[in-house]
Amino acid sequence: MKRALFIPIRDLVVFPGVITPIFVGRKKSVETLEKIIADSSEFLLFMQKEKLQEAPDALKDLNVVGVSARVLQTVKMPDGTIKVLVEIINRVKLIEVNAGNKLYETEYEVLEVSKQEGEETEALKRQVLENFEKYIKLTNNVSPELILNLRSIDDIEKVFNLLASNIMVTSEKKQKLLEVTSINDFGYQILELIKKEIEIVGLEKKIDNKVKDQINNLQKGYYLREKMKAIKDELGDGESMEDEVDELRQLIEKAKLPKEVKIKVEKELLKLEKMPAYSAETSVSRSYIETIIELPWSKKTKDMLDITYAMKVLEDEHYGLKEVKERIVKNHERNKKCWGE
User: Fold this and answer.
1) With contact defined as beta carbons under 8 Å apart, do 87 and 22 qualify?
2) For residues 103 and 28, is the Cβ–Cβ distance under 8 A?
3) Beta strand 82-97 pairing with 19-24
4) Is residue 340 very low, low, confident or very high in pLDDT (cuts 50, 70, 90)?
5) What sign results for the dihedral spanned by CA atoms 48, 53, 55, 57?
6) Adjacent-strand bridge partners of 46
7) Within a 10 A sphere around the Cβ of 82, how many other Cβ atoms?
8) Distance CA 341, CA 327 (A)
9) d(CA 93, CA 53)
């Protein structure tokens, strides 16, 4: 069992063999850091469970697996925080926090990663590196030189630690990786994370390309419509044609057409909009639309079935046509018999 000072950190997980900056700003953390620097001692880093918590000073507030580190450089920032460049050394396990102390202090033990040599481990390393290379090419978030450096390292634990540090996943997922103490399990979990990230990045790119295509089509349509408008303006018929189409569109809305008729006439209106203003086809299409609109779709008249009155109208308004008038009367009488009148 060992004892050391520690600093709680927010939303950050680091792995052994990595050199990284951390920022220290809380009063108790700054006082602890000053003691660490004064004694030139190793210290511990543990990620707190709730990143917004201001005073994580109990065992329940911290992830129990963290790392030991040494200070390489410190820089005081304008806002009062201290930027600390640290080198990570080992995995460690938090045993007990000495609560109530002025400084952060704990008992801990070092966690060793069990190393396995064999074909499975070597094959796992190759798979991890190959998939990580795909991940780098897809994301462009990591320098391609890193993969060359990783291939030159013989220590598999170091390779996996560096990989875990450079995968763009949540700190919670990295914390789970930090807690693994079997080298093969460590490799399999990294491989699973990388493959999931490759799949997610692939879907993101697919969605991004789809959105870009839609935007390009919209822009292309807008450009073509504006170009057609400009051509019509140059020919002197742009505005009048557009005004006429708009007027017809308003009349269509007011006409209260049946659904099927409205769909048909709107299609015809779209065709008319694209036609040259003074072509013969434009005149035909315009007449067709106007005729449809003028039909009394929503109007009804009361039927006049009085045959005597009908005969009077025929005699008053139509000279001769005796046979025609007689046929009208006979048809009416026959229909009355059919209807039972």
Assistant:
1) no
2) yes
3) antiparallel
4) very low
5) negative
6) 8
7) 17
8) 19
9) 21
Paired tokens of 97: 């926090």
Whether pTM exceeds 0.90: no
d(CA 156, CA 170): 23
pLDDT band at 333 (very low <50, low <70, confident <90, very high): low
> Which pLDDT score, from 0 to 100, does residue 174 have?
94
Q: Do residues 15 and 115 lie in contact, with contact meaning Cβ atoms separated by under 8 Å?
A: no
To the nearest 10 degrees (0 to 180), the angle between helices 183-235 and 156-166 is: 30
User: Is 115:155 a contact under the CB 8 Å cutoff?
Assistant: no
Whole-number pLDDT of residue 101 = 80
Query: Has residue 336 got a pLDDT over 60?
Result: no
Of 60-74, 93-107, 169-183, 298-312, minimum mean pLDDT range: 298-312
Q: What is the 3-state secondary structure (H, E, C) of the chain?
A: CEEEEEEEECCCCCCCCCEEEEEECCHHHHHHHHHHHHHCCCEEEEEECCCCCCCCCCHHHECCEEEEEEEEEEEECCCCCEEEEEEEEEEEEEEEECCCCCCCEEEEEEECCECCCCHHHHHHHHHHHHHHHHHHHHHCCCCCHHHHHHHCCCCHHHHHHHHHHHCCCCHHHHHHHHCCCEHHHHHHHHHHHHHHHHHHHHHHHHHHHHHHHHHHHHHHHHHHHHHHHHHHHHHCCHHHHHHHHHHHHHHHHHCCCCHHHHHHHHHHHHHHHHCCCCCHHHHHHHHHHHHHHHCCCCCCCCCCCCHHHHHHHHHHHCCCCHHHHHHHHHHHHHHHHHHCC
Q: Report the C-alpha gap between 91 and 44 in whole angstroms.
A: 9
How many angstroms separate the first and last alpha carbons of the chain? Answer: 114
Q: How far apart are CA 44 and CA 93, in angstroms?
A: 10
* Environment class of 293 (CB within 10 Å of its CB; exposed 0-12, middle 13-18, buried 19+): middle
Of 211, 215, 213, 169, nearest to 192 (Cα)?
Answer: 169
Amino acid residing at 143: S
CB 41 within 8 A of CB 68: no
Cα dihedral sign, 210-216-219-223: negative
- Picking from 144, 142, 126, the residue whose alpha carbon sits closest to that of residue 190 is 126
Tokens of residue 254, six digits: 């007011």
